[in-house]
Design a protein that fits this description.
Elements (H helix, E strand, L loop, with lengths): L8 H9 L3 H23 L2 H17 L6
Helix pairs in contact: 1-2, 2-3
Length: 68
């Protein structure tokens, strides 16, 4: 099993396009916090920001096959 934390973003997206859920989790762990900070600066609403981040990652998972 790969150590996902040591993989590059490119490698993770390649694995994601192959339906690797652990790669998706690693991408989420790497970027959800940073995205939340930036989105919250715009929305100034914790609930709305959380919804936006959840929606973004749902889209990422649903469109994962397109990253080939």
């Amino acid at each position: 099993m790969a150590d996902y934390q040591s993989l590059s973003d490119s490698d993770l997206f390649s694995l994601l396009s192959d339906n690797d859920h652990l790669a998706y989790i690693e991408i989420y762990n790497r970027y959800s916090g940073l995205l939340y900070i930036h989105a919250h600066k715009r929305t100034r609403n914790k609930g709305e920001t959380s919804d936006l981040i959840q929606h973004l990652f749902t889209i990422l998972w649903n469109r994962r096959i397109r990253f080939n």
